[in-house]
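Subject — a protein and its fold
Fields — amino acid sequence, C-alpha cells
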Amino acid sequence: MSPFPDAQKTVTPCAADESMKALSQLLLSSRKAGPLPPALYDIDRKDFDDLVELAKTNHVIVRGLAIVAATMIDARDTVRAEWVESELAAERSRIAQAVECLHLVCAAFDGEGFDATVIKSLDHWPDLGSDLDLYTNAPPRQVCALMRKRFGAETAPRSWGDRLACKWNFKVPGLPELVEIHMGRLGQTGEQVAMATNLPRRARSVEIDKREFRVPSPADGIMISTLQRMYRHFFFRLCDIVDTAELAASGILDYGELRYSAQRASIWEGVATYLIIVSDYVLKFRGTDLGLPAFVTEAARFGGDLVHLGGDFLRVPVLPCGARLYGSQLGGLLRRRELHSSARVGLLPWLATAAFVGEKLTGNDKGIW
C-alpha cells in the first residue's frame, strides 16, 4: 500500500481530456482571438455544460469563456453566445459576492490589529477559487472569536490534517464559499513556520474589483502553490499553469530571491520542479517556454513529460516522483536541525495511508485531510 494519497488510483482517458486540451489552447495560446479549438466547434449543450464544470473545477471559467464569448459573437452564433454569457454572468455574480465578503473579513482583521494576507484565492483573478483563503499570525482563539462575533460564522469540523496545519474553515451565513484561515503555519502538516511567520511582512498590495488586498510576494506565492501541488495534492489545476505563466511573463518574479527562500524552507527542488512542469506544459500550447534560469532547470527533479491529463486535472506521479520530493524536504529539515518540523513532515505518510484506508472503507477521506 502506498503511503501517499491517490498513489494507487488509476486514471483512464476520458472526454474531459479533450476539453482540458481545448481550454489549455484557449488560455495558453499566444493568440487570444481567432478560430476555436476543434473540440468547441458546434458544441452541443451537454458537452458545453461539461466544459463549464471542467472550467469551474480548474478556476478558469471567466478567462476561458470570455474568449469563447468573443469568438461566438464574431461568428454570430447567438445561441451559443447566450449560453456563454449566461454562465459568465452567474460566475461573475458569485465572485462579486465572495470578493465583497473577503474584503469585509480583511477589514475586520485590520480593525482588530490582526494581519490578514489573502493566499491562493486571488491568484486566479478575474477567476476566483472555491474557498476564500487567508493567512494570519493572529492567535487562533482571537480569530475564531472575531469570526463568530462579526460574521456569525460557524467553525466547520476539523480533520487531523487541519489540526496539524493549524487551519480553520468558517461557514459564513449567506456565503457559499468557506473562509479558510491558516494561522501561524503553512504546509500540509504545518511544518513551515518561518516562511509563514514572515509572509505578512513580505506581502504586497493589489487592487481587485476596486478593493485593496494584501497578497503574498511573488516568491511566496510560488512557494505556497508548490506546497499545495508538489507536496500535498500531486495534481495541477489549469489555473496553476495559467497563473504561474502570467506571473513569469510579468517580470516581477525574482528567481534568485525565490531560490534563497525556498532553500531555507527545504523545498527548492519542489519549487524548481513545479516551475519546469509549468514551463513544459506552456511550451506545448504556446510554442515557447517560460525561459527559466539555468539554476532552476538544474535543480528540478523531473519535468512535464511525466505529467499526464487525468480526468479533470494534470496528474503528477506520486511514486517515485512525489515520494522523492517528500524525502528531500524531510532531509533538508533534518540537516537544518528543525526537529519539530521534521517530526510533523514525518507524519505525512501515516496520514496518507490512513486517508487511503478511510476512503476505501467510507468513501471519503475528510476526517484525515
Summary: The chain is about 55% helix and 10% strand. The first helix runs from residue 15 to 28. The chain has one domain: 15-362.
